[in-house]
Amino acid sequence: MLKKSRFTPPQILVLGFALIILIGSGLLMLPVSSTDGLPLPFIDALFTATSATCVTGLVVVDTGTHFTTFGQMVIISLIQIGGLGFMSMATLFAFILRKKISLRERLLLQEALNQGSMEGIVRLFRKVLIYSLTIEGVAAVLFTARWSVDLGFPKGLYYGIWHAVSFFNNAGFDLFGPITGPFTSLTAYAGDFITNAVTMALIVLGGIGFIVMSDVMDYRKTKRLTLHSKVVLSATSILIVTGALVIFIFEYSNSKTLGSLGFGDKILASFFQSVTPRTAGANTLDLASLRQATQFFMIILMFIGASPGSTGGGIKTTTFTMLVGAIVAMVRGKEDIVFFRNRLGKERILKAITLTMFALFLVIFVTMLLSTTEDHEFLMILYEVTSAFGTVGLTLGLTTKLTVFGKVMIALTMFAGRLGPLTLAYALQPKAEKELYRYPEGKITIG
User: pLDDT value at position 116?
Assistant: First the structure.
């Protein structure tokens, strides 16, 4: 089927994700999915399926109280498929059936895993699968050991496995509504080291990208890291530490957030809330009680997001790093942007600028629209839209109050954020034709 298809890889990815969302919506609308036995309204089912498939975590109904075990299993399945990518899941079944991976399927995998070439793409997929299942398995054991103390072993095991998959895929869905109150995520575990440490580790590992994980695992043999891995690891570390420091300073005396915690718990909560905007959606602090400066800073972190080839969204750490590098080079009067003694090509910088502008225009456009249809504070709307674009899942409480139009716009924003603005642009644009001529170069005054 794929061989005869006239669709390009970006178009197939868009259609594939859309089909999975529609199937998930249909399953969530079944009476067996809801604890009250009533069908979930289509718009709410569509929103939930989109949020799960796009590994976001924004919810209009509480996952732990509204959905039955069947409904929760549908959601976690959508999260796993959405996190790894539907082409990765299709390739898994091809391996199981011992089917040969065609050239076109390799092209789709290349697009899905955000790779620059097809070289070693199937081998990389095998590593992706092994790393994912191993990390989720280890985290599930640790979560089960901790939560069985509070919930008993059967429920602790179920919660452990479910949340290991959710957090590794940077989804942000959780089942803790029945324990800590609806939509409060992990606020009851703000000072719990095991819960915080395992969750942060899952988010970071899922967010750095499978390419980097593979590179790090092969370090013993190669004794070197690629430029991509060096940039991702450096940027991720700097953003996490800087984010934790800013949140710690801004919220230190806020009695509704860090102010009520001990010094050690303050540090732990600051790091946790610095990690989760990258793009997981769990929280141990009451986000609505954060100072506006902190909320705006988290919007910036959400916009940057995770790294390429990961389960997260945003413009990506590498894009942000290239933009910063371009600014530094311009200020210093340098012609080239250099990282770790490697010069970046001009086309990379142009792609980074294009992606960032696409993303910025999308967030601004949707925010302006919702500012006219939703009767809420501007910062709350901007926070929600950026969270949707970055597939983060953090909210200041707006999600459940959205109008039907608001839910549709946020769902579309999540979809665009998961696939990436450029992928959508490539999927929608007509077939490019080679230009037969070039115009003379002109000059425009800048600044």
Answer: 54
* 48 CB neighbour count, 10 Å cutoff: 30
Residues 6+ apart with CB under 8 A from 67: 28, 33, 34, 35, 61, 75
CB 86 within 8 A of CB 17: yes
CA atoms in the 13 A half-sphere facing the CB of 172: 36
Integer Cα distance of 234 and 317 in angstroms: 10
Burial class (CB in 10 A: 0-12, 13-18, 19+), 119: exposed
Residue type, 57: G
Spell 164-189 as b/e; 16+ CB within 10 A means b.
bbbbbbbbbbbbbbebeeebbbbbeb
The neighbour count for residue 279, using CB atoms within 10 Å, is 35
DSSP-assigned letter for residue 119:
T
**DSSP, residue by residue, 295-360:** HHHHHHHHHH-S-TTSS--SS-HHHHHHHHHHHHHHHTT-SS-EETTEEPPHHHHHHHHHHHHHHH
Label each residue of 420-446 as H, E or C.
Answer: CHHHHHHHHCCCCCCCCCCCCCCCCCC
Residue 306's closest CA among 418, 395, 216?
Answer: 418
**What span, in angstroms and rounded, lies between the C-alpha atoms of 410 and 401?**
12
Structure tokens that stand for 104 in this block: 């076109």
> Do 201 and 139 contact (CB within 8 A), yes or no?
yes
Contacts of 190 (CB under 8 A, 6+ apart): 196, 261, 265, 268, 269, 272, 284, 285
- What is d(CA 44, CA 414) in angstroms, rounded to the nearest whole number? 14
Q: Assess contact for 293 and 250: CB atoms under 8 A.
A: yes
**Distance between CA atoms of 302 and 74, rounded to whole angstroms?**
26
Residue type, position 319, single letter: T
Nearest to 246, CA basis, from 305, 290, 197, 188: 290
Euclidean distance between CA atoms 55 and 172, whole angstroms: 7
Is residue 418 within 8 A of residue 53, CB to CB? The reply is yes
Residue closest to 292 by CA, chosen among 382, 402, 185: 382
**Buried residues in 289-302 as b, exposed as e (16+ CB within 10 A):** ebeeebbebbbebb
207 with 314: CB under 8 angstroms? Answer: no
Could you report the per-residue pLDDT of 270-292, keeping only the tens digit for each?
999 999 998 788 888 989 999 99
C-alpha to C-alpha distance for 79 and 312, rounded to whole angstroms: 12
Question: Tokens in use for 121?
Answer: 């793409």
Q: What is the pLDDT of residues 138-180, one digit of tens each?
A: 999 999 999 999 889 999 999 999 999 999 998 889 998 644 4
